[in-house]
């Protein structure tokens, strides 16, 4: 049974797609047009009651929340593809810690920036300059902590590429390539080197090539 990934062009789905490629899991994609509101239609709400992508269907198993989906596949295909969560409880603890940091410290300001700098016109939102300024200030502080971490560790979760790194790919890609805010990354030597490393992985290059959003 081939895994179905709904909403492949969204930022959050890209975490899932990279994870599936790294785990060598076959998948097919089901486009969901957010601009037309397809994610709020009755059929889609049966899959994801909050009306957001991504969702996966694996046979009769359905799952949403991109980080939960990544954890599910990293666990289900433990011995297939590369190890993405660590081999010992201690390694797994550190990967989980940085996944949580991504979700709770990095993602909120980075997502607010993406929405207000990039996507506002598409979703009929008026960009809020104060929110943009505050989000950038918050992100700077978060990235200073990352700089310290990455001066001592090759990747966020340890000396191996993991879900913690994957989780940062979509929004960091926007920061570097779409928002004119590359300096946030480039002004930090170790964050910059880490970004060059993780963004040059074939899995990420493939996802960007195939599922880049239309802006
Ligand atoms: N925490 C969720 C966030 C999902 C999310 O916000 N998806 C966005 C696309 S990246 C979406 O569907 N936005 C439309 C909406 O929420 O109305 C996850 O990681 O899967």
- Low-pLDDT stretches: none
Relative helix content: 55-70%
Order of helices and strands: EHEHEEHHHHHHH
The biggest sheet, with number of strands, parallel, antiparallel or mixed sense and barrel status, is:
4 strands, mixed
* Class based on secondary structure composition and strand pairing: alpha+beta
Mean pLDDT reading: 96
Number of helices: 9
The gyration radius over C-alpha positions equals: 17 Å
Which CATH architecture of the largest domain? Up-down Bundle
Strand content: 5-15%
The strand order across the widest sheet is 2-1-3-4
Counted up, domains total 2
CATH class of the largest domain: Mainly Alpha
Shape: globular
Keywords: Cytoplasm, Detoxification, Transferase
Family: Belongs to the GST superfamily. Phi family.
Subcellular location: Cytoplasm, Cytosol
Protein name: glutathione transferase
Explain what the structure shows.
It is a single chain. The protein is 57% helix and 7% strand. The model has no long low-confidence stretch (mean pLDDT 96). The protein is of the alpha+beta class and 215 residues long. Helix 5 packs across helix 8. It has a 4-stranded mixed beta sheet, with helices on one face. The longest helix is centred in the middle third of the chain and has 31 residues, at 89-119. Glutathione binds next to helix 1 and helix 3. InterPro entries: Glutathione-S-Trfase_C-like (IPR010987), Glutathione-S-Trfase_C_sf (IPR036282), Glutathione_S-Trfase (IPR040079), Glutathione_S-Trfase_N (IPR004045), GST_C (IPR004046), GST_Phi_C (IPR034347), Thioredoxin-like_sf (IPR036249). Residues 1-81 form the GST N-terminal domain.
């Amino acid at each position: 049974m081939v895994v179905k990934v709904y909403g492949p062009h969204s930022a959050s789905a890209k975490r899932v797609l990279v994870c599936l490629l790294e785990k060598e899991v076959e998948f097919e994609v089901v486009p969901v047009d957010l601009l037309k509101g397809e994610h709020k239609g009755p059929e889609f709400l049966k899959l994801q009651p909050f009306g957001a992508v991504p969702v996966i269907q694996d046979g009769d198993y359905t799952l949403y929340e991109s980080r939960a989906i990544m954890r599910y596949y990293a666990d289900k295909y433990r011995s297939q593809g590369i190890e993405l969560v660590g081999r010992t409880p201690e390694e797994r603890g550190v990967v989980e810690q940085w996944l949580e940091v991504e979700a709770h410290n990095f993602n909120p300001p980075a997502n607010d920036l993406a929405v207000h700098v990039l996507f506002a016109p598409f979703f009929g939102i008026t960009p809020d300059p104060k929110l943009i300024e505050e989000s950038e200030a918050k992100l700077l502080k978060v990235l200073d902590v990352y700089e310290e971490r990455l001066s001592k560790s090759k990747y966020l979760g340890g000396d191996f590429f993991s879900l913690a790194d994957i989780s940062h790919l979509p929004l960091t890609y926007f920061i570097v390539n779409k928002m004119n805010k590359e300096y946030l990354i480039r002004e930090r030597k170790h964050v910059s080197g880490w970004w060059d490393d993780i963004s040059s992985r074939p899995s990420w290059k493939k996802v960007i090539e195939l599922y880049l959003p239309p802006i």
